[in-house]
Design a protein that fits this description.
This protein is 51% helix and 10% strand. The N and C termini lie far apart (153 Å). It has 8 helices and 4 strands, in the order H-H-E-E-E-E-H-H-H-H-H-H. It is rod-shaped and about 150 Å long. It folds into 2 domains: 176 residues, Roll (Ubiquitin Conjugating Enzyme), CATH 3.10.110.10; 89 residues. Helix 1 packs antiparallel against helix 2. By secondary structure, it is α+β, with helices and mostly antiparallel strands. A 4-stranded antiparallel β-sheet has the order 1-2-3-4. This is Putative ubiquitin receptor.
Length: 297
């Protein structure tokens, strides 16, 4: 069947996925199927920072699901072996706005990351991106379904109709718009309907978007380079200051030692003068003694 994703987006998606992902075919199919099913989602490439601090260029699918929940989905390079990373865009959405009665609250941490139960039991053969989004949407509306079994106080209504027939009416008004997302997810086969796109001739694809992606990546790398340069410059300035202080202290020590050396030289010179004077006195006394000895009978 015909897909609703614009041809330009399809061509761009195909071109950027191939050099990044190990399984480019499956990643392309699942991403295209997700965009075709949820029209408020958009693709882009961004640098993802892993928990160890290493950056990596990945495909990111973002947009709103449900009523107005801003979703960010990062597709890892090992997809579908590894499941996608799901988070809430905290820059445009306050998590506290989500009702505390919704079960999705239990799976969102303070950084906006969403640990869906399906991700803990990921099966690449039967699961895909569509199933992940459907799981998230079911958690946004599941409490209303949980309340349906708790409403059967109909047996008691037989005894006091005025009291028990009125309360069940308000919940019923909420069910119609909640039920559609609660339908069981379809099998993940639909993504593979675009298989013919993998065999198309891509020699006429415009490189504009690809070049833009490379320019964005280069901008990020340039920014990282500038940060490294500033860091190195700060380190050099710090070392230069330390070395200048060390040289100044060294000159001070040399000056002190020079002053002490001059004092020692002066002391030695004075001592030599004193010793020479004493030698002269002793020489004169010796001459007097010798002269006296030679004149005595």
């Amino acid at each position: 069947g015909k897909i609703s994703v614009p041809e330009g987006v399809v061509n761009w998606l195909f071109k950027v996925i191939q050099p990044i992902y190990d399984d480019g075919r499956r990643t392309f199919h699942d991403s295209l199927a997700l965009l075709d099913k949820f029209h408020r989602l958009r693709p882009r490439t961004r640098v993802f920072t892993h928990s160890d601090g290493s950056p990596q260029l990945l495909l990111s699918i973002y947009g709103t699901v449900g009523d107005s929940l801003p979703l960010i989905m990062w597709i890892p390079s090992l997809y579908p072996v590894k499941p996608p990373f799901i988070s809430i865009d905290l820059e445009t959405f306050d998590v506290s706005a989500i009702s505390s009665s919704l079960p999705v609250q239990a799976y969102i941490d303070s950084d906006g990351r969403v640990a869906l139960p399906i991700l803990d039991h990921w099966n690449p053969a039967t699961m895909g991106l569509i199933v992940v989004v459907q799981e998230l949407m079911s958690l946004l509306s599941e409490p209303s379904r949980d309340r349906v079994p708790s409403l059967p106080p109909k047996p008691d209504a037989m005894h006091s109709p005025l009291k028990h027939t009125v309360p069940p009416l308000p919940p019923k008004a909420k069910f119609p718009h909640v039920q559609p997302p609660l339908q069981p997810p379809p099998p993940p086969q639909p993504p593979f309907r675009a298989v013919d796109l993998m065999d198309m001739d891509n020699t006429d694809l415009s490189p504009t978007n690809h070049h833009e992606m490379l320019q964005n990546l280069q901008s990020v790398l340039n920014e990282l380079y500038r940060e490294d340069v500033h860091y190195v410059a700060d380190k050099i300035l710090t070392r230069q200051t330390i070395m200048q202080d060390s040289v100044a202290r060294f000159h001070e020590m040399v000056a002190v030692d020079k002053t002490r050396l001059q004092a020692v030289e002066q002391t030695i010179e004075q001592t030599m003068h004193t010793l020479n004077a004493q030698i002269e006195v002793l020489t004169a006394e010796r001459a007097t003694v010798q002269e006296f000895s030679s004149t005595s009978p």
